[in-house]
Structure formats: structure tokens, C-alpha cells
Design goal:
The chain is 22% helix and 19% strand.
Length: 444
């Protein structure tokens, strides 16, 4: 039922699961008398899976991790562990040691990360309803559009003193809004690498050569008057890899006074806008992704495989010849929400179909990506940083001003192998590692 849990009552208690807004008000429900707390299904799953995988979760504040690892054990009604090897749960009883300690630990968790896991409403509705709520302690997030994006303030990304609490809240906002924007940041290439490592493992680009002083950072340089076509088609970074990049962090070093904006599109919203019939059809399909056409040595613009003086230098990697096959609809491993995962830059055809047979359907899907109500557009200033989730966001660079120099620097985070989850079992942790799940539950 929807009755709240009273933390200072029984030694063993049951969390109810159906209060959608509870997670957003966690920190407002605590006082010295242990006021009742309510939790939604997502909150309970988050807590239970974190207790099973303390070391791999970024969604839980360190204070809560420490408490869960020592004082909080999910058990079923017979006293056995309620968690399978994949961390999934249904109804659970919790064995608690100290109501106040638990309430304080819960209050320090990140409500945004919990809210991001609610898939019961369309993504646009979820993001609109959270826009007016104060769900952050250490940062301020102002949504850019109703569908995706938020501008984050109150953060110095270059600071060595950037606390884990702030990092947790940034990650929660990242999951909730899809793409984040930070104004007036001063990051050296080393700073950018250090920042990326706070969120995950760096994914070095296999084709674009990195900077000499920081090979993990690629510099996207276009001199004034020079032609370029880097990123000027809708895409998700490195989808041609078996494990596409989780996210990207882009830093503006020098930008024109006007133009050369970047647009972002919500892949959750694209999928959700399709008819149920088409959704069901796509969920049984996989598509082929390759870098061989976008980075074709015979046709690349603004870079070179052979000229050491080129603004952007490429290497003839195996990825130019290889292909990766991914589900057309993927399940986000952290939020559980489905997203369309094909793009016009790297997706060539549907597995089991010829290119000619695939083209009508893929062209229709590509045309849905940039619909205005699914997008946001960001106007750059020098020093700005954008950070987006490639698992649920596509982007495109708008090359409308070639009369000025433009320098951007990018780092990407290593991701997981895309999968479509066919039931409610949550079998992946934040690092994208399958936890001995039954493989027939997934399309990969």
C-alpha cells in the first residue's frame, strides 16, 4: 500500500513502493524524531542493488554506501537474501540497525538519481515535474527545455577540492536531464582528464589522434576559412564500437562570436513518440554500425590520415573496417528507460536486411531525431563545458560559421555493450557489467 514507513517502529519493516514523488523529498522528511519516510519502487531498488554492489555504484552517496555495507541487509520474508545475482528485488523486508542512522544516510543520497529511474511516465513529463523542485543541495540546475538539458551553476570543475557529494549530484543531474552545461570553466587538458575520471573510465578515441600532452583528449580544431565536417550529422559518439562511449565532456576553448552551436536530441523522447506498433517492431531488430563511412580516408573533410600538419589527425584503426551490431532500441543500464539507438552518421542498415530494404525505415527514424520538441540548442562561449549521456542523447554540430577559428576539446567515458531488457530484471550495474544474468532476458 502507500502508507509511509515509520523508521522508529519495528525492527524489521517493509518498504512500500508506489509513491512517485517520495524520492524528491527525502531530505525534507528527516528530523530528530525520525519522521516517517516514504519511498517509491525506484528508491527501494536503488537501495537494495547498492547494498549488493556497494563498490560499483556511483548513484549512492559515500555515507550511504558505508552504512549499507555494514548495517543494512536486504532479506526476504523467510530471512534469506532478497537479491538475486543481478540485484533485482520485488517486495523486500529490511533488517535495520538504528533508525536515525538509516534516515540520515537516506537523506544524504541523491534524489535526482532516484527520480531518473522512474519509467512510469514519459521523459518529458518527468523532467517538467522536477524542474520546479529543489532536489539538489550542492549545485543549482536550471532546465534548458522541457525535454532535455540543464545549465549547472555553483561548480568549479577544475577544483581539486571538488567533493564527492558534488560529483554525485552532477551524476544525478546527468541521468535526469541527459546533457549538462557549465559556464565559465577553466580546464587544462589535464584538468579535463581528471574531471572525466571522477565519473568513470576514460575511453580513448580509436581513430582521432589525441593531443600530444594528453592522448585521452582530442582537439577539434577548425581554422578560419577552412572546410570541416566533424560531427555535423546527428550521432551518438562512437556507436560503431562494441561498447560505445557512455558519455562525453566537451570544453570550448575558442569559439566564433556567433554560430557553430550544438544541438542535442533526447533519444528517450524519440522512442516514446513512436507508435506502440512501431516500438514493438523495432524491439525485435538490430542494426549495423560502422565508422568506415564517416571516417572514410578518401572523403574526410577538415582532417587527414597522412598529413602530420592537419588540424585533426586520424589513424587507420581496425574500427574503420569492423562493424558492431546493436539493438535498435536499447535499455539505459542506470535508469531502465528505453531509447532509440540508431543514428545517421554510423548506422548503415538493419541486420538481416539489405541497405535498400533498410533505408525507408532508417530514414524515417533518422528524421524523428531532430524534431524541435525533442531537442535543445546550446550557444557556446569560451570556457563552457557540456557533458552528455551518449546512451540516451544524440547531438550534431552546426557548421554555419567558418569565418572564425574554433577550438574544442573532448574526452569520452567508456561505456557498456548496448542491450534491450525484455523484462523488469535489472542485471547491469553502472559500469555496464552483466551480473551473471540469464542471457535469454536480453537482446544484444
Amino acid at each position: 500500500d502507500n502508507n509511509p514507513v515509520t523508521l522508529n517502529q519495528p525492527q524489521k519493516f517493509v518498504f512500500p513502493f508506489d509513491n512517485l514523488k517520495a524520492a524528491a523529498s527525502l531530505e525534507h522528511k528527516i528530523n530528530d524524531k525520525c519522521n516517517p519516510l516514504t519511498y517509491n519502487r525506484s528508491a527501494c531498488k536503488l537501495l537494495a542493488s547498492s547494498a549488493a554492489r556497494i563498490k560499483s555504484s556511483r548513484l549512492i552517496n559515500p555515507c550511504l554506501k558505508a552504512f549499507l555495507s555494514t548495517a543494512y541487509k536486504p532479506i526476504d520474508f523467510n530471512g534469506n537474501s532478497a537479491l538475486g545475482v543481478d540485484g533485482s528485488i520485488d517486495d523486500i523486508k529490511m533488517e535495520k540497525k538504528g533508525a536515525m542512522e538509516l534516515s540520515l544516510a537516506l537523506a544524504s543520497s541523491c534524489p535526482a538519481a532516484v527520480l531518473a529511474q522512474d519509467t512510469s511516465v514519459p521523459i518529458g513529463h518527468l523532467r517538467v515535474t522536477t524542474a520546479s523542485g529543489n532536489i539538489f543541495r550542492h549545485i543549482e540546475a536550471i532546465p534548458v527545455t522541457a525535454m532535455l538539458g540543464a545549465e549547472i551553476s555553483g561548480v568549479d570543475l577544475s577544483s581539486p577540492a571538488l567533493s564527492e557529494d558534488v560529483v554525485e549530484e552532477i551524476w544525478g543531474a546527468f541521468l535526469l536531464y541527459g546533457v549538462l552545461f557549465f559556464r565559465d570553466q577553466k580546464l587544462s587538458p589535464q584538468d579535463q582528464v581528471n574531471l572525466a575520471k571522477r565519473f568513470g573510465e576514460i575511453d580513448r578515441h580509436p581513430i582521432v589522434k589525441g593531443m600530444a600532452e594528453e592522448p585521452d583528449v582530442i582537439q577539434i580544431l577548425r581554422e578560419a576559412g577552412a572546410p570541416t565536417n566533424f560531427g555535423e550529422t546527428w550521432h551518438s559518439d562512437n556507436s560503431y564500437m562494441l561498447q560505445p562511449s557512455l558519455g562525453s565532456i566537451l570544453h570550448a576553448i575558442e569559439v566564433p562570436p556567433v554560430g557553430n552551436d550544438t544541438m542535442f536530441s533526447c533519444a528517450y523522447g524519440t522512442y516514446e513518440s513512436l507508435s506502440p506498433t512501431l516500438q514493438n517492431l523495432l524491439e525485435g531488430m538490430r542494426a549495423v554500425h560502422t565508422a568506415g563511412e564517416a571516417f572514410n580516408p578518401a572523403s574526410v573533410v577538415g582532417g587527414s590520415f597522412d598529413n602530420p600538419e592537419a588540424a585533426i589527425k586520424y589513424t587507420k584503426a581496425v574500427e574503420l573496417e569492423s562493424q558492431s551490431i546493436h539493438p535498435i532500441v536499447r535499455t539505459h543500464p542506470e535508469t531502465g528507460r528505453k531509447a532509440l539507438f540508431v543514428n545517421s552518421m554510423f548506422t548503415t542498415h538493419i541486420k538481416g536486411m539489405t541497405r535498400a530494404e533498410s533505408r525507408p525505415l532508417l530514414e524515417y527514424l533518422f528524421s524523428q531525431v531532430g524534431l524541435p520538441h525533442l531537442t535543445c540548442r546550446y550557444r557556446w562561449k569560451a570556457g563552457d563545458v557540456a557533458m552528455w549521456d551518449n546512451r540516451c542523447v544524440q547531438h550534431v554540430a552546426i557548421g554555419d560559421n567558418s569565418s572564425h577559428r574554433r577550438i574544442m576539446r573532448r574526452v569520452t567515458l567508456k561505456g557498456d555493450r548496448p542491450f534491450l531488457k525484455n523484462n523488469a530484471t535489472n542485471a547491469k550495474n553502472r559500469r555496464g557489467i552483466l551480473a551473471d544474468a540469464r542471457m535469454d532476458e536480453f537482446t544484444m
